[in-house]
Structure formats: C-alpha cells, structure tokens
Amino acid sequence: MAEAEQFAAVIVDAPGLGALDYRVPEGMLLAPGDRVIVPLGTRKVPGIVTGLSPVTEVPAKKLRRVAAVLSDTIPLHAEWLALTRFAALYYQRGWGESAVPALPLFMRRAPGVRHESWLKKARAIGPAGGEPGPRPQLNDEQAEACRQVLASGGYVPWVLFGVTGSGKTEVYLHLIEETLVRDPEAQVLLMVPEINLTPQLEARVRARFPDELVVAMHSDFPDGERARSWLAVHEGRARVLVGTRMSIFASFRKLALVIVDEEHDTSFKAGDGLRFSGRDLAVWRAWKNRCPVILGSATPSIETWAKVRKGDYKLLTLTKRASAEATLPAIRLVNPNRKGARTLLTPDAAAAMEATLKAGRQVLVFLNRRGYAPVLSCPSCGWVSTCRRCSTFTVFHKGAKRLVCHHCGWQTGIPPACPKCGDPDILPKGTGTERIEEELAVRFPDRRVLRIDRDSVSTRHEAEEAFRRVHAGEVDILVGTQMVAKGHDFANVGLVVVLNPDAQMLSPATRAREQLFATLMQVAGRAGRAGAQGEVLIQTRFQDDPLFAALARQDYVAFADAVLEDRRANMAVPYVHQAMLYAEAKSLAEAEFFLTEAVEIGMREAPPEVRIYDPVPMPLMRLMNVERAQLLVEADERPALQAFLARWRQSLRARAGVEWTMEVDPLEA
Ligand SMILES: [Zn+2]
Ligand SMILES: [Zn+2]
C-alpha cells in the first residue's frame, strides 16, 4: 500500500500571504518548525512548516512540492512559532513576514558546500573558561531587589528603577547567576540598547560566567557571527544571550529570565520591517514562558511608568549610588547667550570649565547636533542649503568640506558663493559639535579636545578607542552627542555642560520632553562618579520649566507623574492606543489620495470607539525623492484598535505607484 499523502502548511516572507499548503514528497520527514525551501511563483524561497495534515483544500493540480528541508539542526521551537505568530497579529503583518526575516540569512538558505564545516566550527565555540570575575557585595537595596524577584514564581513583570550608578547591572548578573544555578537547562536573555552592547559589556558577562557559554547578537555583526550565536541559543548550548532588539527573535530552548536594560531606549523599537518593540515583545515572551521579566531604567518610559502606577508592573527601587563615595551632581541653570551671539558657550560655562580643568578633572560638553552648523545661509537673499532629495536642510560639515543630508546621506560640495544671488559671504547658521570643537580649541588652546559623534567615530571599535583615550586621561575636554551620554562611565569628569536643550524643548512631538529628560538624566549621570561631587551646567531659556526643577532634584518620579497627569488630561498615549498608516509615492497627491481612500474604507468599518484622523504630510515630507504622508488611528481600548486594524488592512486597495505600511504603537505620533 502506498504511504498516505501528507501536506505541509508553510509560511513564507511575502506580504499578505497566509500559510500555503505544499505536498510533502515521499520519504521526506517533516515536523512543525522545520525550515524548508519551497517554490513560490517562479522562485524558490525559504519557509517554515507550521503544521502537517493528511488533507488539503488546495486542488491537486495546483499543489506544489516542498523542494528541500534544511535539516542541519532541530526544528524551531513551538514557543518561537507562537512568538512570531503573536508579533505578526499584533503588528499587522503576515506570519511569514514576521518569522522568516527573524532568522539569520545563514539559517534560511539551502546549504552550500561549506555548510557542514561551518556548522562544525560554529558548534565548537565554548565557555570563556578561567577564574570567575569579581562579584561585588550587593548593598541592601540590590540584595532586596534580587530577593523579591527570586522569591516570585512564574510570570512577573518588574521595573528595576535605579539612578545612574546605582548598580542595576550587578542586580542583573546576580539574577542571571541564580537562574542558571537553579535549573541546569535554563537560558537568559539580556537585551541592551544598540549603543550599549560594547565589547566591554560582553567581556564582563563572559567573565562572570566562565563555565557557561555566553553569546552576543548585534546588528553590526556579520551574518555568520549572528548565525553562530543564534544556533548556540537554539540548540540550548548557550545559557546567556546578550543582544540588541533583534535578539528578541532568538529561538530559546528554555527561556527562564528576560532582562531589558535601559528599557526606555528608543532603539528597542524597529523603524522598518515589522516595526516591533523589542521591549514589549520581551514582556510577552516572559508571560508566555511563565518567567520574570526585568525592565531596568533610571528614567522608565512613560508607558512603563503608567503600568507601574496602575499596578500591572511591580516596582523595585535602587536609590543609592552603588559606590559609597559617589554623590549626585549639582545642577545649575544659566541663560544662554543672546540670539546672534558669536559663541554658544556662555561666560558662566567657560568659567566653570576653567575651574574644573584647573582642578585636574575632565569636562564633557554635550550638544545633540553633529556637523559644523545645521544649515548654510545667505544673508543677502535668504537662500538656505537644502537636500536635493528631501524636504530638509543640508548640514554644513566644515572638516569634510561638504553639505550633507542627515536623513538620506545625499551630499554636495560647498558652493563658493550663494547659488541664488551670487553673494560670496554665505554663512553657517547655528552650531553643531564640529563648530563647538573649534570654538573650544580657540577658547582653551592648551587643552586637548576630543569630539565623539557619528562623524568622528563610525564603528564600534573606533568608539572604543575614543573612550579608551578619555579613560586614560589623554583628553581634557570631551565634546559629544547622544553617543557619549549612554552607557559610559567617565570617572574623572567633574563638569558636564549641556549647550542647547531648548531645541528639543520646543519640539511638538509627544515624547520629546520625556526623551529630553531621560537624556539629561543620563548626561548628568556622567558627572561626579568617583569621589568629589560633580556639576552639571545647563544653558537654557526655560529655567522655570518643571522639567528642569525635577532634573535639579534628580526626581524622575515627580517628572513622570506630572507627564502622566498631562497625558491623561489630553487623552494622549498611554491613555489611548495608536497606529499609523504611511503612504509613499512619487507625488504627495498620490500618497494622500491613497490615504483619503483608506479613511473612507475605514469609516465604513470602524466601530465608534475607533477614531480616524485626516491624512497629513509626514514631518519629513520628502525623503530620497519620495513623497510621504501619514494617517493616525486611535482608540481608547487596545482590542478595539487591533480588531479594526486587522479588518482594515485586508480591505485597503492597492494603488499602482503607492507603497503603504502600517505601524502599531508608533513612537512619533
Ligand atoms: Zn543669496
Ligand atoms: Zn536627503
């Protein structure tokens, strides 16, 4: 008797497609979670088996066969399939669109000739070995936080709220250690922001667990390295994965603890593709695995804080800086120079710098704008330098002698005279880090100034080298953007000067204040970490703003509670739930036409509790010669929004020349 026929449901990475049925060739053994190669149209594509059945509704002549099974490792785990399925439903994509791209390229290709030897090498990686690194004594607060987490069973979302330097990492390491000891098969995921996943952090975790395999995943890694880490976690050989947001899609055998450090960091939200939040999926995953999840931050996101206040998340607080002699810095607000002044640095700031440098300590000057000046302009006719492809200015980079678009990378040389009226005296307007570096070199000719931003250091290793020079005392004044605010402890920085927070104070974006507060708290945390008290000097016109009062007291709770009150009064996130529909086309009219039609379709289907707003051009309307518009959808209750989006997405009508995409929980609304 012939063997009974079998059909495999396979998901592939193609928009709008559900699982497709394929015939399983005789003799091929398949299980759910197997990676396969299947024909799709005229191509062969990678897919994942989600189910097997003896029957299919697809007519026999339309059925095609599974071309190959990638049997180099065990099938994807059921929990991983559930995760990608949930992510697809939540973020409004096809299951295959969330699952297939989540695999390293290496794991979704038909194996080449060197695959076997690669696998052998990949499986040969082992623990670091050697003596375990130092285990500092936990202080009372740290010990109490660990005790509470370890005493809880099953899924509990914790917020580990602790000021910079309060020793959150030590709490993580202690929890990881206990988790690994309690269950010899347990695995831990430690997620950190892009910029924080440094070789030092990796080394610190490895040194702490010399007998366990600790692997890392970073978007900078070449695919082979990523695949090696992925495989080690998937096969249960790695006990700890340290990674950026992409690591949330690693396939674990037995996930027993999830930690998200700096949970407020916006790099956990993907800006393209599935547009997922790694932090939010981390919480879901802990729930699914019935294990604790720790969200750590000195300035939790407002969404997270709302859940603490509501009682959904439990709060653990670290109030003391871990090192006994470290004290909070003093915060001083000063008026900026009047408009049109030749320098950005005020006399107050210069004097404070002088004093700090004389005392043998370093100064950090923070300005969140790279380049020399944000724009070149002509005083005679008002011409300003703009990008040829985007609706934005080009930034003047003096060293490189270029005008550069920071959105699309388009660049051009410096015109010798105004292109419009011919006036040769075109001038840089405003100040970026490059200009401040120049100003400081003139103001402090005997001091060594180092600038750290994406222009001066472009790779992880260049950044490491720059930070090493600061630590080694080869630098007196450090100038930098966001890059220096995060994750780096500068023991000898005695003064932090914040030059122009006002640009962000004036931003209309919902989260601008929250993000500014987090950044300033982080920058302030760079001062005064060893011994003597540090000082933070902020140049701002908004000295009466409660944001600065809270900052001066380092009082996140007061700030966050006030923001929550404000959001509640204005019915803003997190008290409403949002999604955005984006459309891109050659002309704005086409993009807006698509969205207008989408509004009409939506109005017919939306229940009264779902609000659909009018289409508007995106804040950056033209990007790389593509015109962009957006449309906001909002509901007070999450289920109403999600149900509507799922129906709406199916009924949107494609238009030639218009690309559209949906984003759930957009950060910029
Ligand atoms: Zn001109
Ligand atoms: Zn551009």
From TrEMBL:
Helicase ATP-binding domain ranges (all copies): 149-318
GO cellular component: primosome complex
GO MF annotation terms: 3'-5' DNA helicase activity; ATP binding; ATP hydrolysis activity; DNA binding; zinc ion binding
SMART domains: DEXDc, HELICc
Gene3D superfamilies: P-loop containing nucleotide triphosphate hydrolases, PriA, 3(prime) DNA-binding domain
Annotated binding of Zn(2+) 1, by residue: 378, 381, 418, 421
UniProt remark on cofactor binding: Binds 2 zinc ions per subunit.
Entry's Gene Ontology BP terms: DNA recombination; DNA replication initiation; DNA replication, synthesis of primer; double-strand break repair
Keywords (A to Z) from UniProt: ATP-binding, DNA replication, DNA-binding, Helicase, Hydrolase, Isomerase, Metal-binding, Nucleotide-binding, Primosome, Zinc
EC category: isomerase
EC number from the UniProt entry: 5.6.2.4
InterPro entries according to UniProt: DEAD/DEAH_box_helicase_dom, Helicase_ATP-bd, Helicase_C-like, P-loop_NTPase, PriA, PriA_3primeBD, PriA_3primeBD_sf, PriA_C
Residues annotated as domain Helicase C-terminal: 413-581
Cofactor(s) the protein needs: Zn(2+)
Cross-referenced HAMAP family: PriA (MF_00983)
Family in the record: Belongs to the helicase family. PriA subfamily.
Subunit structure: Component of the replication restart primosome.
Protein known as: Replication restart protein PriA
Source organism of the structure: Sutterella parvirubra YIT 11816
Gene coding for it: priA
